[in-house]
Amino acid sequence: MALERDVYKALEDVVGPENISEDPVVIESYPFPIRKATTGEDTYLPRFEAITLPKDTAEVQALVKLCNKHGIQYKASSTGWLYCDPTGPGCIKMDLRRMNRILEINEKSMYAVVEPYVIYGQLQAELMKRGLNCNVTGAGSNCSALPLAAHVNLGHLSQSGSYGERNQLALEWVTGDGEIVRMGSLGSLDEWFCGDGPGPSLRGIIRGNTVPLGGLGVFTKAAQKVYHWAGPARFPMEGVCPNYTPSYIPPGFMIRYLSFENVDKLIEAVQKIGESEIAFELMGFNTAMMASNAATDNEEDIKYYKQFSEQVQGPGFMIEIMGNSPRDFEYKKRVLEIIMEETGAWSLKPVEDPEMGRGFLWRFIRTVASIRETTRATGWGGGTVGGTDLFPLMTRYIQHSSYLKEDLVKQGLLLDDACYPFVQSIEHGHTGHGEILIRYTPQSPDHIERVQGMLDREANKTAIEGRFGVPQHVWSDKLHDMYGPHTCNYHLWLRKIKKTFDPNQSSESSNYITAKE
Ligand SMILES: Cc1cc2nc3c(=O)[nH]c(=O)nc-3n(C[C@H](O)[C@H](O)[C@H](O)COP(=O)(O)OP(=O)(O)OC[C@H]3O[C@@H](n4cnc5c(N)ncnc54)[C@H](O)[C@@H]3O)c2cc1C
Fold first, then answer.
1. Arithmetic mean of pLDDT, 137-144
2. What is the SS3 assignment for 407?
3. 164 CA distance to ligand 1 centroid (A)?
4. Reported CATH class of domain 102-228
């Protein structure tokens, strides 16, 4: 379905002819490819009718109003990493890549204000020059630094740098029907330092368990909390991609991978480390993820995995310590030693080796190896995404999927890599988030269904029957309608929010919730 000419012309008048296209060459470069298990062919999600590149909030607002007026939909994206496709015809793309400025870094009040196409890699580099650091979405520092663009905005640094829901400060938002809302202190004082006021707060409206994934208008500027950084203004990098690492571990930093006899001991260690607030990062990577993080090809991946898995005693996590002074560093290391003794932790030797350790340190702080950690070796990846709640609760929830994974590995349906769940600690153990990752090459038409389909069904059943809360894979009408009745009918309220702020359903919301009756 091509756009009516008068509609195309109206959109073009807003952004200029240089910044709109319906050329198939441009349109075809946007959809996310999906390989069909049945035929092995690549297929694509529905195409956008046109691609637009607005340059500022005024243009975004004008496009949104036109879409509402002409009964078409729009979908915004920041970097376009994931969840950015339409599910049907009649939708235009709002690619925000021209909105790429860091607007403010406030060193005194410790916040940063960005537009959507600033990536974390840029923001973090600028912050480090000023003795500051930010949380980085675990998807990678290649993703938008807007805390509202990421799915949840959890990441490797969440132990000390929290995540989107908590870091979000003032915000500029073009609602589904084109109103500009200046949320928090921005609305009342024209300042960015607070997301909640003075005045009423809308933080619970613009995001809940996850962000609206494009289904509730467009976020055009956002402020987020930033944190102290005791490391160098620049990392001393050497080598050529993918083999580049810092030439030394900066003073005051230490990285270890600790493994435990069982999950109870691991939980005890995470709690003690959290209570003592000694960790800069604490990420529950299993040995397969550590191997992939270090490896630059599949052969290396398998080699490291064998090496690491022979040297651990059970589930584990990666921990980084950052000392604010030499004394603080010595103190934190000593506390960690005591906790290791108390919980029987083993340290993985290759990570202690500075040659390897400095590479890990860099990749985890700059978050540059997420794709390596999640998607390689077989070509297909997937798994179960848990929620964000008490660390032990989320560990127990995701452990269920790890038992299922073990069964699937025994049946030869998955790559035989670590079956320990991957649980990450947030805000020094205040909360946790768990996932289990799988890798496989589909061998037959029903392979995906037997693996991912079964994991999804079981994960939903476990979450609902076991009262584990709403996991973060829950988006779309189907899933919200499944979970809502077990969770105070939240889905009815979410739908009311959608109807109120996007009455014409212009903001494409297949990954959020629709206003259906
Ligand atoms: C390997 C891998 C690992 C991942 N790990 C994590 C993780 O650890 N933590 C996590 O939170 N997520 C993770 N994700 C999920 C998700 O892909 C990313 O959070 C997100 O896509 C990051 O890219 P982005 O911030 O540039 O947003 P985009 O990819 O551009 O967009 C993401 C969603 O937000 C919407 N959106 C983007 N910008 C705007 C805007 N300005 N206004 C309105 N809507 C907008 C889009 O429509 C889309 O639905 C991961 C994904 C992959 C592939």
1. 95
2. helix
3. 12
4. alpha beta
Highest mean pLDDT (candidates 273-277, 373-377, 434-438): 273-277
Ligand 1: residue of 34, 51, 81 to mutate (most ligand atoms within 8 A of CB) is 81
Token pair of 367, please? 């978050």
Answer whether 102's CB lies under 8 Å from 113's CB.
yes
The pLDDT score that the predictor gives to residue 229 is 98
CATH architecture of 237-372: 2-Layer Sandwich (3.30)
Do domains 5-98 and 237-372 share one topology? The answer is: no
Please give the Cα distance from 75 to 494 (Å, whole number): 19
Please, are residues 168 and 207 in contact by the beta-carbon 8 Å criterion?
A: yes
Q: What's the gap in Å between 156 CA and the centre of ligand 1? A: 15
327 C-alpha vs ligand 1 centroid, how far in Å? 39
For residues 499 and 72, give the distance between their C-alpha atoms in angstroms, rounded to a whole number.
16
According to DSSP, the β-strands at 73-77 and 91-95 are parallel
Instruction: Provide the pLDDT for residue 320.
Output: 98
Q: Kindly give the distance from the C-alpha atom of residue 141 to the centroid of ligand 1, in angstroms, as a whole number.
A: 11
Across residues 430-455, what is the average pLDDT? 89
What is the b/e burial string over 286-311, where b = at least 16 CB atoms within 10 angstroms of the residue's CB? bbbbbbbbbbeeeeebbebbeebbeb
Q: Which atom of ligand 1 is nearest to the CA of 508?
A: 47
CA of 80 to the centre of ligand 1 (A): 7
What pLDDT, on the 0 to 100 scale, is given for residue 198? 83
| Closest ligand 1 atom to 373 CA | 1
Under 8 Å between Cβ of 124 and 136: yes
Tens digit of pLDDT for each residue in 208-222?
Answer: 788 999 999 999 999
Residue nearest to atom 13 of ligand 1 (CA): 139
List the chain domain ranges: 5-98, 102-228, 237-372, 377-465
When the pLDDT of each residue in the chain is averaged and rounded to a whole number, the result is 93
Q: Which DSSP letter does residue 45 get?
A: P
**CA distance linking residue 373 with residue 371, whole number of Å:** 5
Positive or negative: CA dihedral 27, 215, 67, 18: negative
Which residues form ligand 1's pocket by a CB distance below 6 Å?
Answer: 75-84, 96, 116, 137-139, 143-144, 146, 149-155, 213-214, 218-219, 370-371, 374-375, 511
CA pair distance 482, 415, nearest whole angstrom: 31
The CATH number of 5-98 is 3.30.43.10
Nearest CA to ligand 1 atom 17: 82
Token reading at 48 = 């956008």
Tokens matching residue 325: 């002074």
39 has a pLDDT exceeding 60? no
Mutate to test the pocket of ligand 1, among 82, 117, 213 (most ligand atoms within 8 A of CB): 82
